[in-house]
Amino acid sequence: DWVDLPDIIEAARRRAGRLLERHTVRITLPPALPLICVDPVLIEQVVFNLLDNARKYAPPDSTITVWAGHDGQTLTLEISDQGPGIPPEDRERVFDMFYRVDRNDRQSGTGLGLAICRGIVTAHGGTLQADSGLNGVGASLILRLPMPETVPGVPA
Ligand code: ATP
Ligand code: MG
């Protein structure tokens, strides 16, 4: 389906609902983003999972930053938090099934969320990577999706 990424972000945020009530969610979007051709249910699930991780691993009252942009070929969505971050040696392994960073934070989970997210993104021809957060603080999860060359309603 042809969808507008901001609508998907809003839907994921709405679905997270009260899970996000203790965090500040700051969304920075360009005035207009080209439509993307994705499965909206699956991409919403990815955004939901990334928001859920951000609020789960970052302390309450911290800020979760959602940023999107594009360069004409690739659409980028970054979800950054101010939590403990993901150590460089784990930034690839967190996408493995059941892998969880060993921490004493007592947060429960199956370790499947990011593996599922990467599967969905890969099926769309995109990439999903972990990096350090803004100014080296926390984690950033970076989603890149290829942009189609033709968009309905826009003459070539
Ligand atoms: P679930 O399957 O319920 O999502 P989970 O959150 O443990 O369980 P993933 O979402 O796959 O599993 O994340 C894997 C691991 O990566 C987490 O256990 C956590 O250690 C680490 N991680 C993921 N997101 C973040 C984040 N934003 N900040 C810090 N660590 C993170
Ligand atoms: Mg998770």
TrEMBL record:
<protein>
    <recommendedName>
        <fullName>histidine kinase</fullName>
    </recommendedName>
</protein>
<comment type="function">
    <text>Member of the two-component regulatory system KdpD/KdpE involved in the regulation of the kdp operon. KdpD may function as a membrane-associated protein kinase that phosphorylates KdpE in response to environmental signals.</text>
</comment>
<feature type="domain" description="Histidine kinase">
    <location>
        <begin position="1"/>
        <end position="149"/>
    </location>
</feature>
